[in-house]
Design goal:
The protein is built from two helices and no strands. By secondary structure, the chain is mostly helical. The chain has one domain. Helix 1 runs antiparallel to helix 2.
Length: about 140
């Protein structure tokens, strides 16, 4: 006969896996955000550098592409920031769910210990009663 699996323990393991996955996603999202912010800063810096270094005609020919790149980089950074915030929210929710399941596991263990203590006390009381009854007859 196969051993019966504990559904709550299985759920706790799944929650731990989900929390670990959420942690990794947050780390990856943070890396993407930092990279996107770096690209946006580099694009803005390139615009400023070219403005002072190039002849006005050369800068005028280049500025449209530079502005477009800066805007794309800023849009990418904004998207990465939203994704990072969503990931942090998902991680917080996963941690709450994990803690709730851990509390259920502890509550169930406490209830099992309490039941065992009550049974042991009942057995002790029963034995003491039998001993007292035997002493009276005795």
């Amino acid at each position: 006969m196969a051993a019966r699996t504990d559904p709550l323990a299985s759920l706790a393991r799944l929650r731990r896996l989900e929390t670990g996955l959420a942690r990794r996603r947050v780390a990856e999202d943070t890396d993407r955000l930092l990279a996107a912010e770096g690209r946006a800063e580099a694009a803005g810096a390139a615009l400023r550098t070219e403005q002072g270094a190039a002849a006005p005609a050369d800068y005028a020919a280049w500025v449209g592409r530079g502005l477009a790149e800066r805007d794309r980089a800023a849009l990418g950074a904004a998207h990465a920031a939203r994704r990072s915030a969503e990931g942090r929210t998902a991680l917080a929710e996963a941690r709450v769910a994990e803690r709730c399941i851990e509390q259920l596991v502890r509550d169930r263990a406490d209830a099992a210990r309490s039941l065992l203590q009550r049974k042991a006390q009942a057995a002790t009381d029963d034995a003491a009663g039998r001993t007292a009854h035997a002493a009276k007859r005795g």
